[in-house]
Specification:
This protein has 110 residues and is of the alpha+beta class. The chain has 6 helices and 3 strands; from the N terminus they run ααβααββαα. Helices cover 58% and strands 13% of the residues. A 3-stranded antiparallel sheet has the order 1-3-2.
Length: 110
């Protein structure tokens, strides 16, 4: 990663994973290596272009590795790096908070 990082640690984290697509990509890659088509299908309404842009950015940031197999048709797989996996506690906290919030809303009839 050759970009200059901000002084604020929160801002650094937001720069790396601060959009919904990156979080959803990470969620799916925490389960293990996935091919591009698998990610596109599991992430949902993301376009091919946006998925490609986010994966490239995450690769440039050192969060994801991309492995290309010399086959016809070409096969490409994506995995989280050790740095990518180090963000798991953040995603776990988001899961816990989201579950609690949903439960609270449901119990209030909202």
């Amino acid at each position: 990663m050759s970009r200059e990082l901000p002084d604020c640690p929160v801002e650094i984290t937001l720069q790396l994973i601060g959009n919904k697509w990156k979080i959803l990509i990470m969620r799916d890659l925490l389960e293990g290596t996935k091919r591009f088509g698998e990610l596109k299908k599991s992430v949902g309404s993301i376009t091919q272009k946006v998925l490609t842009q986010n994966l490239r950015d995450m690769e440039d940031s050192g969060l994801v590795t991309r492995k290309v197999y010399a086959e016809v048709p070409p096969r490409v797989e994506y995995s989280l790096t050790e740095t990518g996996y180090s963000l798991k506690p953040i995603l776990d906290s988001m899961i816990k908070w989201g579950t609690s919030y949903k439960t609270t809303l449901n119990s209030c009839g909202i």
